[in-house]
């Protein structure tokens, strides 16, 4: 009895021999390596049974994966020869049954029946092995007779709808009763090829994929067959089933990203699919195994809350939970969700870091945002916050790179895209080398408007490094090549700033005056103020005359003209202070006090005016930039000057 029980289990695949590296090799499709690994252990096997088991695994690979049935038969014969060395009855019977199956795969049914007859002859009629052999003999002979009858019927009734159905039945006989899956596939294919518009063609195409998948374990062929079914017969329920199986094919291959796409497409395309609840479960499983715990939680929650309560217990087999109650599954999934939620923050950060290493900034940004939203108080969220802004700009660069490829293909202008990329490198990522490189590409494209902008930004970047000579050359290039552009006006101003820093005051004055010669271009700040480069240049001219050349006459005239020309300037209060300082030097104390008072009143009433006074007037020590601090400091200046005047009188 024990021998019969072991035989039964072995025949139905419930016992397997664990060889450490073999399952991984088979999963990776490394069949020859697996065979070599097993064969290398046969000589050193400790006993006959172990040797038989190793040979059995070798034969199984030839049979199930390589479909080399002739070699499988030779291997089973090697097992049978071990009978002289004490081969167990269970192993002997197993080899006989498997060898008979291999003969059947080759269409050698007479050879298979001979083996079954030998099993009957050598075993009592009461044993399971005898009964199984008898059943196989009967099934084979009956199937061969049915096959002959069906083929005769088809010959007499060719090109009829019923003949197509008989073809399908023949394929089923070949597959299920005669164990000839390859021959069955050829029949299915003939139906699809010769009767593509028949409803049975859909059925046949499905069975091609399912046979490759479940019987022959040829995953690539199964995938192609399923995919063809989806493409040609998408309205059919079989197409939904094919999509479901494609998801499982990707899962078994460890390609969880593709599995997710398949299950998501299935859910979106076939909302009434009878296995949709299981699709949500396996979608969650693929998300989890792929490390996307957030989406895994979402999908598991849908399955748990929407589908599990109303599910028939038999449905649990579709999610691999045979024999469990719904309450057991519910408790397990709730615990699984809690575990995923606990792991989620760290996993999101790790996933984001992985995306960063791959330079996939858009995906990293999504993970950072999700992490901060879901777990804001964690250390992981803090790390995400620290890099969020930078990654956002790098994500934009990634998007612009993709857009750049599209624009190049369509031959649209790419200057604007390149300029934005350079701008991000320059202003937000502090990567001047990358920015200059892109700006130069823009200049090489010869679009005047964009080239002027790019050349000007190159000058700004050189000036910041500071590479003043290169900056001057870049600015001069803008002025010479694009004299009518606003960038030429700005370049003149920047040249003035550089010469002023180099104490080349006459060149600075010339550059500032050139800036003023351009049409006025104003920017509005608020509080009724506006500024321009001309306004700024005139103020700088006055400061050079006052601070650097001590030409107080020119300075006074410049600031007077400034006040008359730019009554809305944010530097209006600062101009009055400068006039006050000049009048004080000239000993015109009354006029100085009047100027300081006007500056004080402007500063008290405007934060903008106060800020510019604090920025522009370097000779006064301001305790703060706010209106109150600046106003008080100017009031103190007025008080001190008034006191000194009274003392002098």
Descriptive account of the structure:
Helices cover 77% and strands 1% of the residues. It is elongated, with a radius of gyration of 43 Å. The protein contains 31 helices and 2 strands. Residues 1-18 have low confidence and may be disordered. The protein has helices at residues 2-11, 22-27, 31-42, 48-66, 69-81, 89-105, 109-122, 128-156, 161-177, 181-194, 199-215, 219-232, 237-252, 256-269, 276-289, 293-307, 326-357, 361-374, 379-410, 415-428, 432-444, 448-464, 468-481, 486-501, 505-516, 533-548, 552-565, 572-585, 589-605, 607-616, 627-648, and strands at residues 522-526, 529-532. With 649 residues, it is mainly α. Strands 1-2 form a two-stranded antiparallel sheet. The longest helix has 32 residues, at 326-357.
Number of beta strands: 2
- The rounded distance between the terminal residues' Cα atoms is 132 Å
Mean pLDDT: 90
Q: How is the largest sheet built, in terms of strand order?
A: 1-2
Share of β-strand residues: under 5%
Question: Nutshell version of this structure?
Answer:
This protein is mainly alpha-helical.
Topology:
Elements: H1 2-11, H2 22-27, H3 31-42, H4 48-66, H5 69-81, H6 89-105, H7 109-122, H8 128-156, H9 161-177, H10 181-194, H11 199-215, H12 219-232, H13 237-252, H14 256-269, H15 276-289, H16 293-307, H17 326-357, H18 361-374, H19 379-410, H20 415-428, H21 432-444, H22 448-464, H23 468-481, H24 486-501, H25 505-516, E1 522-526, E2 529-532, H26 533-548, H27 552-565, H28 572-585, H29 589-605, H30 607-616, H31 627-648
Helix pairs in contact: 1-6, 3-4, 4-5, 5-6, 6-7, 7-8, 8-9, 9-10, 10-11, 11-12, 11-13, 12-13, 13-14, 13-15, 14-15, 15-16, 16-17, 17-18, 18-19, 19-20, 20-21, 21-22, 22-23, 22-24, 23-24, 24-25, 25-26, 26-27, 27-28, 28-29, 28-30, 29-30, 29-31, 30-31
């Amino acid at each position: 009895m024990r021998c019969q029980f072991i035989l039964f289990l072995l025949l139905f695949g419930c016992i397997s021999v664990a060889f450490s590296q073999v399952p991984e090799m088979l999963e990776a499709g490394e069949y020859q390596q697996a065979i070599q690994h097993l064969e290398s252990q046969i000589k050193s096997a400790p006993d006959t049974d172990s040797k038989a088991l190793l040979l059995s695994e070798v034969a199984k690979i030839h049979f199930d994966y390589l479909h080399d049935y002739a070699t499988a038969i030779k291997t089973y014969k090697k097992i049978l020869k071990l009978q002289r060395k004490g081969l167990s009855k269970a192993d002997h019977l197993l080899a006989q049954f498997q060898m008979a199956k291999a003969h059947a795969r080759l269409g050698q049914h007479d050879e298979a029946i001979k083996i079954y007859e030998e099993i009957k002859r050598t075993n009592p009629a009461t044993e399971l092995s005898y009964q199984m052999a008898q059943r196989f003999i009967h099934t084979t002979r009956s199937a061969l007779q049915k096959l002959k009858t069906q083929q005769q019927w088809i010959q007499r009734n060719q090109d009829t709808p019923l003949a197509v159905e008989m073809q399908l039945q023949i394929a089923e006989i070949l597959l299920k009763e005669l164990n000839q899956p390859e021959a069955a596939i050829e029949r299915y294919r003939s139906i699809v090829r010769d009767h593509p518009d028949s409803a049975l063609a859909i059925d046949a195409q499905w069975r091609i994929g399912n046979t490759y998948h479940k019987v022959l374990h040829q995953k690539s062929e199964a995938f192609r067959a399923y995919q063809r079914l989806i493409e040609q017969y998408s309205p059919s329920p079989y197409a939904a089933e094919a999509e479901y199986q494609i998801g499982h094919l990707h899962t078994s291959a460890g390609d969880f990203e593709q599995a997710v796409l398949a299950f998501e497409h299935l859910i979106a395309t076939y909302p009434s699919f009878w296995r949709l609840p299981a699709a949500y479960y396996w979608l969650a499983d693929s998300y989890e195994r792929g490390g996307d715990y957030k989406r895994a939680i979402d999908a598991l929650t849908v399955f748990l809350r929407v589908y599990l309560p109303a599910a028939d217990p038999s449905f649990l087999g579709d999610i691999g939970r045979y024999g469990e109650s719904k309450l057991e599954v519910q408790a397990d999934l709730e615990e699984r969700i809690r575990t995923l939620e606990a792991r989620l923050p760290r996993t999101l950060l790790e996933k984001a870091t992985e995306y960063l290493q791959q330079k996939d900034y858009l995906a990293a940004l999504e993970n950072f945002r999700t992490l901060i939203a879901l777990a804001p108080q964690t250390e992981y969220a803090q790390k995400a916050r620290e890099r969020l802004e930078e990654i956002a700009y790098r994500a934009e660069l990634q998007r612009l790179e993709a857009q750049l490829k599209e624009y190049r293909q369509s031959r649209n202008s790419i200057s604007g895209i390149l300029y934005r990329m350079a701008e991000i490198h320059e202003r937000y990522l502090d990567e001047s080398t990358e920015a200059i490189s892109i700006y130069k590409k823009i200049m090489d494209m010869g679009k005047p408007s964009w080239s002027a902008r790019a050349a000007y930004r190159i000058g700004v970047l050189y000036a910041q490094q500071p590479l003043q000579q290169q900056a001057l050359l870049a600015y001069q290039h803008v002025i010479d090549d694009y004299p009518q552009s606003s960038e030429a006006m700005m370049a003149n101003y920047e040249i003035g700033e550089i010469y002023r820093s180099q104490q080349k005051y006459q060149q600075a004055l010339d550059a500032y005056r050139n800036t003023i010669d351009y049409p006025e271009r104003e920017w509005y700040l608020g509080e009724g103020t506006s500024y321009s480069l001309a306004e700024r240049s005139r103020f700088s001219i006055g400061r050079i005359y006052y601070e650097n050349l001590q030409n107080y006459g020119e300075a006074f005239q410049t600031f007077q003209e400034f006040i008359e020309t730019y009554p809305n300037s944010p530097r209006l209060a600062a101009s009055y202070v400068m006039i006050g300082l000049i009048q004080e030097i000239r000993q015109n104390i009354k006029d100085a006090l009047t100027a300081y008072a006007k500056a004080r009143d402007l500063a008290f009433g405007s934060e903008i005016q106060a800020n510019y006074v604090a920025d522009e007037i370097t000779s006064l020590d301001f305790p703060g930039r706010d209106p109150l601090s600046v106003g008080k400091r100017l009031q103190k200046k007025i008080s001190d000057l008034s006191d000194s005047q009274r003392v002098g009188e």
